[in-house]
Specification:
Layout lengths: L3 H13 L2 H8 L3 H15 L4 E3 L4 E3 L1 H27 L7 E5 L4 H15 L5 E5 L2 H10 L4 E6 L7 E8 L1 E6 L12 H5 L5 E2 L4 H7 L14 E2 L2 H9 L5 E4 H5 L8 E5 L6 E7 L6 H20 L2
Parallel strand pairs: 3-4, 3-5, 8-9
Antiparallel strand pairs: 1-2, 5-12, 6-12, 7-10, 7-11
């Protein structure tokens, strides 16, 4: 019979493509891991990995077994968590993932409140792009994710944290600096700077005004909000900054002009978790703390 231990070995090998590192991850010796994988292949009657002196590669059927094994192991983890929840405990570390345009501005503000509420709970934060966060949640690598909608999130449970509007960032003396009549059409006439593809903020910023449209394919893009601000400061163009980042002080010390955009369609920042998780009640309490953290940023503007 296929065992959970064998499936954990295979998933670890898939993640590392190295027998030594996979064994370390599973806290076993390399011969033990190799023997377990060989037993699994014998039981299934198919090779799951191609081995050479220099590399390891999963076979097509091995990759499919890994995909299904992740689902099984994730369900088992939820069963164990359900038992702990019934006993009134949430054991182990809490792994929170967040998109880079929200996490560094919101989560540090909430850490004190989270530690006060659950002093024995350790929280680990990972910043990743939205698709990676959703994959991590499905695979059980993450327990909670903070991301922004609209975005296809599948069947996960979500709770709204806040709506995040925008401010226009321009260089000093730009025609739109301080303007009370900023429209999508006027923005489209300027050089719009955005985050590179993969960041959901790129699409959200373009959707802030229906008539703005996409910038030309050769437009400048950046890997982070601080880089965007520096580009604006140098007069390379203008950009839309999320209100959360502005309230957290991202523009302090930069010679730029920030102009409120009350007419822009905001993105919706949510906390998400697997629908099968038994800790929904605790996660909703965490959502409440994250909302408190967001409100405290507004209060200190």
């Amino acid at each position: 019979m296929t065992t959970l231990r064998q499936l954990r070995f295979l998933v670890a090998l898939s993640d590392t493509l190295n027998f030594s590192r996979a064994a370390e991850r599973c806290h076993v010796t390399q011969p033990t891991l190799s023997a377990g994988l060989k037993e699994l292949e014998d039981q299934l009657g198919v090779p799951l990995a191609e081995r050479s002196k220099r590399s390891v590669m999963l076979t097509p059927v091995g990759a499919e077994v890994v995909r299904r094994a992740r689902v099984v192991l994730n369900d088992v983890a939820d069963i164990e968590a359900l038992a702990h929840a019934q006993a009134g405990t949430l054991q182990g570390d809490l792994r929170l993932g967040a998109i880079p345009t929200v996490g560094p501005f919101l989560v540090p503000r909430a850490l004190g409140l989270l530690r006060k509420a659950w002093p024995d709970q350790r929280l680990f934060l990972r910043e990743e792009l939205t698709d990676s966060l959703l994959a991590g949640l499905a695979e059980g690598r993450l327990d909670l994710v903070v991301l922004a909608l609209p975005h296809a999130v599948g069947s996960i449970e979500t709770e709204l944290l806040f709506e995040d509007g925008y401010q226009l960032a321009t260089s000093i003396g730009h025609a739109l600096a301080g303007s009370a009549e900023v429209t999508g059409a006027k923005l489209a006439e300027s050089s719009i700077l955005l985050l590179e593809k993969g960041h959901c903020l790129q699409r959200h910023a373009l959707e802030a005004y229906a008539e703005m449209g996409a910038p030309p394919g050769d437009a400048f893009s950046a890997t982070s909000l601080p880089t965007l601000i520096s580009m604006v400061e140098e007069g390379l163009g203008i950009t839309l900054l999320p209100q959360l980042a502005v309230d957290a002080g991202i523009a302090r010390g930069h010679s730029i002009i920030l102009t409120p955009l009350p007419g822009a369609c905001p993105r919706r920042v949510v906390l998400g978790w697997r629908a099968t998780s038994p800790h929904a009640r605790r996660f909703r309490e965490i959502a409440g703390i994250l909302r408190q953290a967001r409100a405290s940023l507004r209060a200190t503007m």
